[in-house]
Here is the input.
Amino acid sequence: MSGLKKNYIAGEWVEGVSGEDNINPSDTTDVVGTYAWADSAQTERAIEAASAAAPAWGQSSIQKRSDALDAIGNELIARKEELGELVAREEGKTLLEGIGETVRAAQIFKFFGAETLRLNGEIFDSVRPGLDVTITRAPLGVVGLILPWNFPIAIPAWKVAPALAYGNSVVFKPAELVPATAHVMSEIIVNAGIPDGVFNLVMGSGSEVGTTIVNHQKVTGISFTGSVETGQSVARGAVSRMAKVQLEMGGKNPLIVLDDADLTTAVDCAINGAYFSTGQRCTASSRLIVTEGIYDKFVSSMRERLSTLVVDHALKAGTDIGPVVDERQLQKNLDYIQIGVEEGAKLVYGGERLSRDTPGFYMSPALFIDTSPNMRINREEIFGPIASIIPAKGYDEALAIANDTDLGLSSGIITTSLKHASHFKRNIQAGVAMVNAPTAGVDYHVAFGGTKSSSYGAREQGSYAKEFYTTVRTAYTQA
Ligand code: NAD
Here is the structure.
């Protein structure tokens, strides 16, 4: 197959068992490329290669690893326009968002390049005379990385970079919908001088490539980002063979707006958090919990601001919101609009399929008001440009509603009260708490992750990443 983008297994670019087209959601006549899908046997070969390469890589010079990661970061920055466009083309977020995501990926590689040099241990006196005790961190060996589609380059970076930094070899499986950016990122990694077998790219389905990674005895650790349902099945498979596992999953993130909030800040944060990146962020503000005194003003300002947002082709100048990622997700969003209406929520803006100059999966951002916490639209993750406003009497009720969910990824409060902001940070049941800032958009040098069903296992990002990608070793020495 000419032009087929191949998998990278054991130091070679190899064809798969089929070739799948990657379609641009802004224009379904635009095929971004055709990508080779691997099967179980090829995935097993990648795992065997990673396993064979792991001991030498784990003991390689930290300078060598640091230099390689830094070089990958530099190359990503140098190619940010090209890669940003590719992200926008295959996923549907805007060009600016795509470029921003590429820069973020670069920063992550450069951060972990430096982290490689900072990995340290501890020395203890022993309770027994004459003994020294040292604690050091060792790589896990082979890590399997299973990715979602909504951040085609940033999430791969925040898994691949720490995995390599701390001396692990990698089997990397991008999401089916977004192999293009992952493929270019893989070329850049391979060209940075990573030894054969240390990094493997295996594209394909979750049911074949994903389950092979989860069930293979030689994969010592699995880092997964995706839906709660798939995460639970990944966890069951990993735990059944005692593999280390880290899961980042869905959100139903609350943004509380109190009477004393600055209205412009509240609307800015709600619009950004709920609708940018087409609402397809695990940290999106899908529940806007608004107290009585500001409710009417907030609703009318939101409607006004929504009417200014431009939904169009992701690469078009002036587009604020690109298309939904695919037909399946668009249909799911429209089904939830119907569910919300049937539940008695008032749809005051959007929620319709749109047509544009090119055939794509366009949808107007939707706002429900006067909703109640028990409605399905307020309990289930939709993963689209849809938000609901839930009224609350005051702060205490707003906090109780915010915590009334099985998920606990991000959260936010808009207030000028130090008392409420401080109380919120201590009492919100979420891994991330924002005060006067959007629930989506986090820094790369600090821990990221949630509580309840949103996350499982060690946190990702920042130096906390080593908790997953290394194992602690305790050594006793008799002098
Ligand atoms: P998904 O669960 O459908 O797929 C995620 C990955 O798992 C894909 O690569 C898929 O091929 C693979 N997979 C599917 N079945 C598998 C199986 N049985 N075994 C192993 N792997 C399997 O999720 P998605 O639709 O790609 O992503 C959207 C979800 O990701 C949303 O729920 C979103 O909230 C979540 N997400 C979470 C975070 C976070 O950091 N918490 C970040 C981004 C996205």
User: Anything to note?
Assistant: Residues 95-118 form the longest helix (24 residues).
